[in-house]
Amino acid sequence: MNEVINNLLTRRSTKKYKPDMVPREILDQIIAAGTCAANGRGLQAPIILAITNREIRDRLSKLNAAIMNAPIDPFYGAPVVLVVLADKKVPTCVYDGSLVLGNMMTAAHALGVGSCWIHRAKEVFELPEGKELLKSLGIEGDYEGIGNCILGYPAADPAPRAPRKENYVYWIE
Description:
alpha+beta; single chain; NADH Oxidase; 4-stranded antiparallel beta sheet
């Protein structure tokens, strides 16, 4: 089977991580895959915040958990968070950012790194605290939070793939 197709078919979300940091050279490859995602009219609306700073990571986790109204770490202990935001002025910003996240999760799997898409980036960066965080990091512009791609080395084997639903594909020939 083609290696790319195999990675697409075997990737699973990781929800338990070892504390070990993913090396920068591996993160650079994962991020590069994200920057090469297809995007509307080539406008490259998304940006990626590569967060390995524990204090910032934990701050984001708390904001995300507050939106859920749950006293948990929504990042499942992952040491890396790749936040994808996209320029709100670009009509395809949500789609473009979603493709970035998909590319990064597939690349992570190909490199032996666990990943999971964590929602609520939109809500986090609509909060005054989220906007202030961006400002404090020197991020200027009007961005919408698309999603968080958490990364780390899996602490457990992934669950087997759920069976695909019936009527997933309709052939029109």
